[in-house]
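Self-study notes.
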Amino acid sequence: MLNRLLKALRSPVLRVGFLVLVVTLAVVYVVRDRAAIAQAWSRLDAVSVLLALVFSLANVALSGASWRSVLRDLGSPLPVGAAARVFFVGQLGRYIPGTVFQFVAQAELARDHGVPRRRTGSALAVALLVSLTTSSLLITAVLPFALHGRQISGWEWTGWLRWLTPLLLVLLVPGVLNPLLRVLLRLARQEPLEHRITWRGLLASAGWALASWGAVGGQVYVLAHAVGTDWDTGQLLALAVGGYSLAWMAGFLVVLAPAGAGARELVLGATIALATGSGGAAVVVLGSRVLLTVSDLLLAFAALAGHRAEVSAAAEREVHDHGSA
């Protein structure tokens, strides 16, 4: 069935259909809660919304840079424009329930640039593992700081992440990760990778991933500060970064939800409510979801527009060169 899906996505008609579907679903997630979003937006000023949007765009773009670092390490150093088209358009598949569509979409888009599917899939899997590991590190590092000195109960359960983080770090060691990828590819009846994951590629990917968490933490901080809180800057920022990292991990584990919808909002709301109250947290959660969805769409369309411009410019050069000859 997967092979049939991959073959079908080579059709230009079905590719357009896929894009229309994921954009429609992404818009639906916003329109569905339009009344609550409008009410939430009334509590935010324009400057805060604009600044939060900048942080949201940075978060998505930096996530793409993390993935591109892994793909380069595996032997496919795609130019920025091509990588943007593959990553930003392909990741819209997250809005379809189930994680397979993001893998399939990116694999087919990268194939247009000569990247084998197994390499694209492996790069996305490793980038997700890097995101999972860095988010776990941030949760265990900054959430205790955010909650320090405050009589807050009910968060003791996050202590199990102290055991998960070392396990994830071990999985990222090249001597462990490369054999694991070989086994997974063998189970998927795919040829082994031509290049091994290296520390250089992993550290570059992790650096971009940490920057992306910082950016989305900045988004949550700006929104939380706008709705009002008595927390100081340092603890609120730590709560925003650690809280969103925890929310993303929860959304990632709920694989059937489109883009982690539901689980992510629940955890983020519970976390930010510590600083803003439940009403303010609802505004932050809705604002964060809308801005990240808008960022996904803006960057995907920008990548498509850039690709079309490159194709048109190449066609014009070909006509010019033909005429000169």
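Second protein, same conventions, sequence then structure:
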Amino acid sequence: MTAARGLVVGVLTAGVALGVAHLVAAFVDPATDPVLAVGSLAVDLAPQPVKAFAIRTFGTNDKLALLGGVYALLALGAVLLGAAALRRRRYGLAGLVAFAAVGAAAVLSRPTATPVDVLPVLSGAGIGAATMLVVVRAAQTVLVPDRGRPRLLNRRQFLVTAAGAAVTAGATAAVGQTVGRRSAVGTRSRASVRIPPPGRPAPPLPGGVSAGVDGVSAFLTPNRDFYRVDTALTVPQVDVRTWRLTLDGAVDRPRTWTFDDLLARGVVERDITLNCVSNEVGGPYIGTARWTGIFLAPLLREAGIRAGQNQLVSRSVEGLTIGTPLEAILDGRDALLAVAMNGEPLPLEHGFPVRMLVPGLYGYVGACKWLTSMRVTTFDAFDPYWVQRGWAVDAPVKTASRIDTPKPFARRRGGPVMIAGVAWAQRRGITAVEVRIDDGPWRQARLADGPSPDLWRQWVYRWDATPGSHTLRVRATDATGATQTDERAAPFPDGATGWHSTTVTIT
């Protein structure tokens, strides 16, 4: 019974403390929620193999898995906290202070943190301590044997006290969630944005961009299906009215723009394929969208880049830094400050109000979301977030291909089977795709139209399938004549390599 009451004390104390912290964070900044802050710190400190395992295992649900792990550890800590508090109240309070110190340290470790940001942690710890004292008192008085002395609380009253604490914990969390939704300035701000028609619209897509096979990825990826890989455990909520973009560093004329300032320069529209360096061979972290934005190179040239500079460091509103080779922005490619995606303002998850987009580079060096500043510097002077963690300084996209259909372990009838998928080599373009069945010869696939080297291409191969288990492989050749290597390499440090393969059964 004592162990059970220790569990109740700990869980209720933690529940009230976290509920209050969540409620206060809804008013201060959702990112100051201690659970989110601890989760973000865990992301920053996790070794590369752990990050790779999380992305490979959980995919785009990696953030949910991380937060689930944080809550599981908190639950275990809460049980130990409750047991300690029943033994000596000061032990429980000391443990609560230790938990609060970890939360405060995590909050203050954020690059954009201010002293006010610890208010949710302090509020939660204070109310949690009061809750602990009340519930511990209730639990301890129930344990006093009835020797003619009046009990302060009987079991029923203890349960009422515990239930009251549970309701308090749930209510504060629910109110915090409601307040957070209603105070989601980014959602309201995005709804108010009107993107002007592009002065230079993207040309209509040729009718032949589709291979005409079911199961192949759509040529333009809908926003709801576009992959998301980033370090933000809570999506930043940016008010476009107060948002500013600064350009400084080694430039002669630093500048600051409002959102309207950027739109007034005139927007253009481009179709661009974007992919993540974390993509395994055959992985899903790639998509194509019609982006609307402002050309980035003219902004840099107008600022007057000083001699010897080779890096543009972009920073997001939550403090993440991304380093992009200046040469890749200034060499004539369609590097954009994107403000819209597939005909609508950028979704919050994809960087509203402005993100950078540099074709031909993996996202971690060329696609900063929630952009708020840019600084011209050198690679020797500054290592951005991912470079500090061992990823390559420069990361041009590698030639790759993927089988979309048939799916792995599919069962098909013998006869004609359409093998199809996508291939990409941004900035170079795809000129050939080949398919091999088992250990047979490589066979040429039919390529769909490719209107730009910055876009992926669909392909299809008609196979006269025979009964049995078969392994299908694919490889691509880019416009330089280089054929995709069969050497398998993990995504770290500059992108995966190898042929994608799948096994099917023909009946």
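Instructor comment on the second fold: Residues 400-506 form a domain with the Immunoglobulin-like fold (CATH 2.60.40.650).
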